[in-house]
Amino acid sequence: MVRLHLAAPMKANAKKTNAKPKRAADPFQFVAASYLIRIGQQRATNLGELGHHLRTCSDASIFYHTFQSLESHHYTTFSSDFAQWVMAACNEPALAERMAALDLRDFISIADLREALVCAVEDHIRSFPPAAARPAFEPFHFCEGVEVAFPVDMRAHTLAELAAGIRRLSLHTLHYHLINSRLRLQLKTNDFSFWIEHSLGLPELAEKINRVDFYTNTLEGVREEVLRLIESWDLP
Q1: How far apart are CA 93 and CA 78, in angstroms?
Q2: Which residues form the domain of 166?
Q3: 10-residue block means of pLDDT along the chain (236 residues)?
Q4: Residue 209: inside a domain, yes or no?
């Protein structure tokens, strides 16, 4: 499992060498992940109710409709379920754009993300009061994603082994390691970058992977970009 044993940083000119590939003492542990959807009791039929329920719904619901929904909407204009509904059911493009503009890479706390969503809705209602009670074309049902994750018999000690493992991951598991991990680690990073930096001592590569844009690409495209970065580093 990953531990915070910091490896000595590599020198800038040591990136491309014929030396034996660096082997981490603490391997990267891959997991298998899947999600079950649970429909909650709360639902919104207008923007006023959406704002109210955003304040009172569970953290799991906020997570599901933003981080988890990114798996379905990550290459669309409105990447969160909230923004999708505000646009499609309420016909409020300005608010939808503001909610969609919230970059999940900037959040490591559900509380902060919740507050940003609530502020967006309440600011819009203050600017356009009639929008609060205007009926939506269809209700928004608050749901939760129940995460099921467990370690599998697949570990990586080197970049080559990490790349081989990433090629085999399901999209659910790729999402778990690359996107959902930001809240789990409470850091603005992902499982791959965290391990590459702290176990292999390669912060530059870790940062390159962390900058891969998962908003404007499919998850398969994200996988290929991550693999390209790893394989172009210095795989044997």
Answers
A1: 10
A2: 19-33+150-234
A3: 35 47 91 87 97 95 87 63 95 95 86 96 97 97 89 94 95 88 80 96 96 83 95 77
A4: yes
The predicted pLDDT at position 6 comes to 31
Number of compact structural domains in the chain:
2
- Whole-structure pTM value: 0.74
Residue 135: the pLDDT is: 97
Same domain, 132 and 56: yes
Q: Which of 143, 168, 195 is the last residue of a domain?
A: 143
